[in-house]
């Protein structure tokens, strides 16, 4: 099916705009670290910068009494790298930890800060691995952010302790995290592949099985659906360590792979938990597929413009979390502002009468999948033109 | 008659969907703009790099000391002296 010319122009313009914003935001200067470093140890008389991201906090103007060394540790968070300024005293104990930079969704970060995780890191030794649920308490619903904070603190603590001359044992290669969410995701993609086959007789039943599994596992248990933050993270090049983020690679890689090879969306209609929640509401209310013919193009363009604006904001601030406007966390974690709860209520009520109102008119993933389809089609056309022009040998 | 009723119902449904989408989109944009405002506050209205801050601190420290232009040249951003003097 040929896409209208306006779609192609918009797609090309959007890609150019994202590239321009990417370059401009990358060229901006980095935030000054000194205020953050100072906040790790406010009682210091003054702070001096040493090599790289290493600082020294002095108790007196003559620099006779060294209170602490401060280092910047980094780890992969939900939206990208999270950096912590960590102050370690001469005995190798963490005496201050402050977030220097993060790419997290504000609501999630707020939850972690409210949990008191930062305070629990104080008093730990530089040698502690700071493993979530072991050395420090985890934070329900914000595991990625909490884990990154603990790991970045451990890394900063080691660097600061090493500067004191403490024997620092570098951690070995990360353990590969492959658990229930990864297994379920692969199974759901496999189910989707089987269900997509035209000769398969139980597509409807299999789709419901897949949707309900996605709703429970990807939604309520792990709250890990595809979000615009995942896409922005990909655009920004914040590719997390594969060992601990196989889920992210399976999800994004799986969708891109199936689209490229098969031109089919393996996610939205088969395992998206928010889509499944709307389908359940629709089954209760007898929802019908309603296409507002008069406004169809307008609604498609509104959805695209909102998505593009969100991606541009995420790229501009180099923070994928800031662009995420989905209501997934509000439904699956009960986390969100009153505005988000109001929007969720409206969407769920509408889903009783209209099939998947969120997916059709509001979800940012739809314009992204449209774009992937469009690019695929354009590449295919070029390829066919090129092969037709080349005479057979 | 029946066709006219169907047409009117469809037209009404179209409008209801449009109004629904605009309301929810308005709510989402309001929430998104809160996030953006918070992020913009964090970044500051104009991006500040280490150099600009150091220069400001440099100027402030010299004013505090009453230093003359000759002594100014002996204090360089990044050498630790500035932070020391300001604190």
Describe the structure.
The complex is a heterodimer of chains A (393) and B (87). Chain A has 15 helices and five strands. With 393 residues, chain A is α+β, with helices and mostly antiparallel strands. In chain A, strands 1-2-3-4-5 form a five-stranded antiparallel sheet. In chain A, strand 3 (66-76) and strand 4 form a beta hairpin. The mean pLDDT of chain A is 89. Chain B is mostly helical. Chain B folds into two domains: 1-47; 49-87, no CATH class. Mean pLDDT of chain B is 63; it is low at 45-87. Classes of the chains: A alpha+beta (393), B mainly alpha (87). The A-B interface holds A 28-34, 44-49, 58, 61, 105-106, 290, 292-295, 298-299, 302, 306, 310, 313, 317, 319, 322-323, 325, 337, 339-340, 342-343, 346-347, 350, 354, 357, 361-362 and B 10-11, 13-14, 17-18, 20-21, 23-25, 27-32, 34-36, 38-40, 43, 47-53, 78, 80, 83-84, 86-87.
Number of helices of chain B: 4
**What's the helix-strand series of chain A?**
HHEEEEEHHHHHHHHHHHHH
Integer tally of domains of chain A = 2
Portion of residues in beta strands of chain A equals: 5-15%
Low-confidence stretches of chain B: 45-87
Q: Helix and strand string of chain B, N-terminal first?
A: HHHH
Distance between the termini of chain A: 31 Å
Query: What is the tally of beta strands of chain B?
Result: 0
Helical amount of chain A: 40-55%
Q: What sort of overall outline of chain A do the alpha carbons produce when their principal axes are compared?
A: elongated
Largest sheet of chain A: 5 strands, antiparallel
Q: Would you tell me the structural class of the helices and strands of chain B?
A: mainly alpha
Low-confidence segments of chain A, given as residue ranges, are none
Total count of strands of chain A: 5
Mean pLDDT of chain A comes to 89
User: What summary fits the major beta sheet of chain B?
Assistant: none
Evaluate the radius of gyration of chain A. Answer: 24 Å
- Classify the oligomer: heterodimer
N/C terminus separation of chain B = 84 Å
- Give the largest interface pair and sizes: A-B, 45 and 37 residues
Q: What's the mean pLDDT score of chain B? A: 63
């Amino acid at each position: 099916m040929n896409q209208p010319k306006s779609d192609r122009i918009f797609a090309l313009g959007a890609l150019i705009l994202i590239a321009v914003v990417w370059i401009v935001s990358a060229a901006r200067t980095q935030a000054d670290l000194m205020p953050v470093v100072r906040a790790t140890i406010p009682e210091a008389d003054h702070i001096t910068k040493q090599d790289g991201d290493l600082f020294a906090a002095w108790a007196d103007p003559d620099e006779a009494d060294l209170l602490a060394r401060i280092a910047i540790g980094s780890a992969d968070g939900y939206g990208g790298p999270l950096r912590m300024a960590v102050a370690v005293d001469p005995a190798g104990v963490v005496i201050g930890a402050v977030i220097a930079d993060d790419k997290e969704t504000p609501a999630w970060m707020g939850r972690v800060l409210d949990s008191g995780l930062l305070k629990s890191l104080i008093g730990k030794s530089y040698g502690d691995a700071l493993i979530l649920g072991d050395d420090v308490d985890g934070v329900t619903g914000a595991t990625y952010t909490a884990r990154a904070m603990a790991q970045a603190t451990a890394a900063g603590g080691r660097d600061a302790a090493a500067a004191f001359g403490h024997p620092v044992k570098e951690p070995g290669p990360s353990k590969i995290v492959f658990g229930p969410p990864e297994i379920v995701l692969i199974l759901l993609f496999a189910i989707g592949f089987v269900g997509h086959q035209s000769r398969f007789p139980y597509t409807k039943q299999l789709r419901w099985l897949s949707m309900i599994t996605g709703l429970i596992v990807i939604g309520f248990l792990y709250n890990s659906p595809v979000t615009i933050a995942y896409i922005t993270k990909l655009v920004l090049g914040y590719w997390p360590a594969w060992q601990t983020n196989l889920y992210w690679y399976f999800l994004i890689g799986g969708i891109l792979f199936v689209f490229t090879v098969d031109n089919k969306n393996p996610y939205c209609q088969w395992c998206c938990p928010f889509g499944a929640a709307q389908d359940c509401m629709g089954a209760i209310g007898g929802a019908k597929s309603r296409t507002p013919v008069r406004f169809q193009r307008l609604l498609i363009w509104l959805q695209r413009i909102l998505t593009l604006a969100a991606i541009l904001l995420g790229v501009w601030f180099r923070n994928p979390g800031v662009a995420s406007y989905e209501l997934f966390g509000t439904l699956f974690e009960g986390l969100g502002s009153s505005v988000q709860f109001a929007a969720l209520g409206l969407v769920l009520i509408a889903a009783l009468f209209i099939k998947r109102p969120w997916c059709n008119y509001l979800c940012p993933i739809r314009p992204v999948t449209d774009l992937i389809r469009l690019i695929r089609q354009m590449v295919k056309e070029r390829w066919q033109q090129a092969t037709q022009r080349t005479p057979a040998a | 008659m029946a066709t006219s009723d169907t047409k009117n119902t469809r037209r009404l449904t179209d409008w209801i969907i449009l109004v629904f989408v605009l309301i929810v989109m308005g709510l989402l944009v309001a929430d998104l703009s809160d996030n953006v405002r918070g992020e913009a506050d964090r970044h500051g209205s104009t991006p500040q790099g280490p150099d600009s801050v150091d220069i400001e601190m440099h100027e402030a420290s010299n004013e505090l000391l009453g230093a003359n232009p000759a002594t100014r040249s002996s204090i360089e951003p990044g050498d630790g002296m500035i932070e020391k003097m300001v604190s």
